[in-house]
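Hey, I'm writing a tutorial for new members on how sequence and structure tokens pair up, and I'd like a real worked example in the thread rather than a made-up one. If someone can provide the structure for the chain below, I'll link this post from the tutorial.
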Amino acid sequence: MGKSLCLSLCFLVLFHGCICIAQQQQERQQNKCRISRLSAQEPSNRIQSEAGVTEIYDHNNQQLQCAGVAVVRYIIKPRGLLLPSYLNAPQLMYFIQGRGLQGIMISGCPETFQSFQESQQGVQQVGEQEEQQGGHQFSGDQHQKIREVQEGDVFVVSTGVGHFIYNNGNNRLILVSVIDISNDANQLDFQPRVLSCRSPQNEFQQQRSEDAQQQGQGQEQEQEQEQEGSQEVHRRALRLAEAFNVDAQLIRKLQGQNDSRGNIVRVEGGLQAVLPQRGQEEQGSEQQEDRLHAHGNGFEEIICSLRLKQNIGEPRRADVYTPLGGRIGGITSFDLPILKGIVKLSARRAFLYKGAMLLPHYDMNAHSIIYAIRGSAKFQIVQNQGRTVFNDVVTAGRVIVVPQNFALMMKAGDSGFEFVAIKTDENGMINTLAGDLSLIRAMPVKAIASAYQISEEQAKELKFNRMEASIAPGRFRSESA
């Protein structure tokens, strides 16, 4: 009885401690949302590699801390390979320009792309190589599924899953990635951590090292690394060589010792992989995969063949369309099942024509991380007490966070405006303040007149003058404007 009581008390103390830690983390993040002024962010760190550029937005900025995310943009040259890596948090990528290949490495999944499938109908082999190792000769190649990506695609990568990106096009491949470091799957701190078997230090660690040096904290770490010596590095290489059953010299190359190419390298001769031809059969298989996910038909069907991407940039996928205003498309967990309970993010993609207005609205259940793709727009953001926290023009390449319940209105410039908004909820929802589906439209005329001390005729104008739901053409001008 005494042992049982003692054990129960231990569990109670442990459970209470876990709750306190979780509450403290949530309070720290909520404190970051006490924002009096927003700003459109540009990359704070630019890392040049052999075949591309990595641009990092300062994740220590207050508004990114409020949203609990980190943002990074990759620019990959033709035949450039973003090296395999994995993160401590899920990420949602949006491909802005170009086309390429995305490889996902999920532990326990079979290597279903095999070169001997070239005899089957509809399969195309891209490259074939032979290698001699350990007395065995291998012909061709086999690997896990590689997916084609292009402009307008949303691609999700869950926590701890390895991935790489290759540019097989003729133009630059540009993508922006939002990393949800506040996701429950991240059991570390609110810092993005990219882990790569080749490079001992990633782009976010480099930024932290630069910040530490500015604060006088980096010198001690450098001295400790120098004291480690080459002997320990050699011993680590030997242990890894034993684990892989290969020569130690190969391990040193794997570790990237004396390799200054960066995290985006050039693939001489192009990437050799086994790829199927995309056609109606593959498109139909995606719909079949969704049905399998809904019924839950085993590990391979649920995890290994899980659909990870969807295009939201094509006009036919628009959810909202105004002929003279523009269009909006989006993706939630209802469209991509992996978002539900795993990645917990969603996205909206908007095209605003010249002078068009995105009517005032606010996010009901999420923060919104807006990345400006092309053009420019005048933003006005107001917090819940009615104070303006941002009133300026946002141009291409900038990132701005709109916290939950902050009202946003934007008006496209002369060249129009395109943006993608990543929401910190798997089913991000908005509520409009003007237009056909707005709060004003839902209220009785008499209630509007009484609430704002206006006549019923003015209340009807306020309620019915704007018939569009989300996007208004750029033709309406009020007398005060």
